[in-house]
Design a protein that fits this description.
Bound molecules: acetyl coenzyme *A
Shape: globular
Structural class: alpha/beta
CATH topology of the largest domain: Peroxisomal Thiolase, Chain A, domain 1
Distance between the termini: 18 Å
Radius of gyration: 20 Å
Number of domains: 2
Helix content: 25-40%
Largest sheet: 5 strands, mixed
Number of helices: 11
Strand order of the largest sheet: 1-7-6-4-5
CATH superfamily of the largest domain: Thiolase/Chalcone synthase
CATH architecture of the largest domain: 3-Layer(aba) Sandwich
Amino acid sequence: MPNAYISGTGFHVPEDIVTNQDLVTRYGIDTTDEWIVKRTGIEARRFAPEGVGTADLAVPAVQMALERAGISNADIGMIIFATLSPDHCFPGSGVYLQHKLGLTDEGVGNFAGCLDVRNQCSGFLYGLATATSMVQSGSVDNIVLVGAEVHSAALDLSTRGRNVASLFGDGAGAVIVSATEEDRGIRSWHLGADGRHADALSQKVFDISKRPFIPLNEEGVGQVAPDYMFAHMAGRLVFKHAVERMIGALMKEFQKQSLTVDDVDLFFFHQANLRINQYVAKNLGLPDEKLFHNIERYGNTTAATIPIMLAEAQGQGRLERGMKIVTVAFGSGFTWGAAIIDW
Ligand code: ACO
């Protein structure tokens, strides 16, 4: 059985930097930099311009990851795309990415399978577990795993929506999960979910149990009320469960691998709220320098946070062969996951 390891990382964020103060001046939201920084650690986020979709953001991230892995389009055996903000209701963003990458071009003709993962903030880790299992099965040698989000199009950028709108940003991160005979790679993973809280963090733009699935006005045009159009979040409940589940998932992984915090070189926690992560880190006795973060610059990019961090850490020379890293995420569903990787 081959080992599965991350052979390349890449990321891409849009140019437009939206600071907390910009939420006030550009969008007229009644908030302050102090309120947002104090509760979340977020100072700015990136917003994609109109006309740029989720698969578009993913393209340069994947290209960087392919280059760092030293492989080309022709070597891609599978695409796994994690997002909660897909380009369209269907098909998933994976096939759009495949086409935009040029895999379907004449001369390449790579019709690799495309799988979309719908697991919100833990989507990257659900994708990583899937990619790892596929590679270890010996069926595929190189998998492109992407987490990408265009949140800005679906945020209620008004005072009404400030509790959610101030948290999220756009971005894409990608890794290549490859087969190797070397003694390295993704050692173990843990996934979990608690569907009792599915509604606590949700965006119910349509309801397929209704006829029709979106209400129509007298002219027969679909009408989505703000309560349905934008995400709803029970912030404090999410905070409480995030802390409990992240600690629980990490403890499980540590036990499975007989590890302690001291054995780990770097931790990559999902970037939903710096305060959640600091609370978890303090509970586990984890020193600040072992906790990589970038939420201050990008906000919560959901499925993209972990691969963006991995790509930034690699670019900064902070990820070296032989290091042990741990990653954990929690989000809507509720769903969560963790993984231990020998880099
Ligand atoms: N600026 C100013 N005031 C605000 C803002 C804002 N941006 N947002 C909310 N408020 C106000 C509220 O309106 C409320 O006012 P009221 O008391 O007059 O009604 C007050 O602040 C307190 O609101 P809470 O929501 O109770 O604020 P809280 O202290 O809980 O902090 C926060 C909110 C930061 C969102 C916190 O609950 C949190 O981080 N929760 C977890 C978020 C998270 O992890 N999400 C998961 C990932 S997302 C995913 O999976 C897709």
